[in-house]
Amino acid sequence: MAGTLSSIRTAAVTRVATTTLTVATRGAGFTDITDEARRFVEAAGGRHGTLLLFMRHTSASLTIQENADPDVRTDLVTALDRLAPTDAGWVHDAEGPDDMPAHVKTMLIGVSLAVPVVGGTLALGTWQGIYVAEHRARPHRREVMLQFLGETA
User: Fold this and answer.
1) Facing residues of 133 across strands?
2) Confidence of residue 1 (pLDDT cuts 50, 70, 90)
3) What's the predicted TM-score (pTM) here?
4) Secondary element (H or E) of residue 18
5) 119: phi then psi, degrees, rounded to nearest 5
6) Where are the beta strands (DSSP E) in 40-125?
7) Where are its TM segments located (predicted)?
8) Are 119 and 48 in contact, with CB atoms under 8 Å apart?
9) 32-47: per-residue pLDDT in tens?
10) Cα distance between residue 3 and residue 12, in whole Å
């Protein structure tokens, strides 16, 4: 046997709540939006369901990563720069030399997340946080759509 299921809880979807979160990034790196996501679920009255997050840009992405040691995020930026360096001879450079590598990094990481909500709480692991990954060198204002689907209090 590979694993054990906990008790199964079923509920009808009684609410869909949506908002737009605007995030000011400081340039390449990670911005923690976990607290904003929690506040949204709370404001929506979310009890059991799913929080969907969607990045409305093609040069920034969303990820769930370790929230304890900031060195992890530093190393992730380094790894992404190795995978898609600015000096790789990209054809698309209309918005600057960091634009095409940013598109590649977004394609690798992705623009959407789904986080279970259980008992009004995001079901993240102990060391997990939700992050906007900015792939451009300069600061940007990024829009993230948040949507809770599920049962409310």
Assistant:
1) 30, 61
2) low
3) 0.93
4) strand 15-24
5) 60, 30
6) 46-55, 60-66, 112-118, 121-122
7) 107-133
8) yes
9) 999 999 999 999 999 9
10) 27
